[in-house]
Amino acid sequence: MSTSAEVRDVTPNDIDAVAAIEAVSFPDPWSRRAFAALVGREEVVFLVATRDDRVVGFAVAWYAADQGELSNLAVDSADRRGGVGAQLLEAVMDRGRARGAVDLWLEVRESNVAARQLYQRQQFEEAGIRKAYYDAPREDAVIMRRSIGRQ
């Protein structure tokens, strides 16, 4: 599927769908409560992508001073490889630019080839490795960074 999704701020009504996507996307998923606690926080950009009023993906990023960190991004398995992840990433970067951020950082499992390819297509560069960063299963994280300063 390659039609565009609508990207917007999360609402409390989206949390169940976000948690469901998270649960099937990651071996050590965030809880519903963790997502619910982020709604409306000023330092957090929490976006969902929807198609036909159905949540098909989400992204969570934190911004402080001129730096941002992408904490979580996932797309429903039926909607992967259709551009939703790239749309969410672009929206997160746009929000960061609007806040005056100059860099966006992230960590990704070394084995998550699809995500790493998405980030590389979006001009993120590898900046280092965090040894044994992830649990369940234990795995290194690849640290990636992209300059998002005003363009």
Question: What is the count of distinct domains?
Answer: 1
N-to-C series of helices and strands: EHHEEEHEHEE
Question: What is the CATH third-level topology name?
Answer: Aminopeptidase
Q: How many DSSP E strands?
A: 7
CATH superfamily: Gcn5-related N-acetyltransferase (GNAT)
Overall CATH architecture: 3-Layer(aba) Sandwich
- Stretches where pLDDT is under 50 for at least 5 consecutive residues are none
Largest sheet: 7 strands, mixed
Strand order of the largest sheet: 1-2-3-4-5-7-6
Helical content stands at 25-40%
| Strand-pairing-aware structural class | alpha+beta
Number of helices: 4
CATH class label = Alpha Beta
Q: Supply Rg.
A: 15 Å
Mean pLDDT: 92
N- and C-termini, Cα separation: 30 Å
Per DSSP, what share of the residues sits in E-state strands of 2 or more residues? 35-45%
- The backbone outline, from C-alpha atoms, is globular
Which key terms come to mind for this protein?
151 residues, alpha+beta, Aminopeptidase, 7-stranded mixed sheet, 4 helices, 26% helix
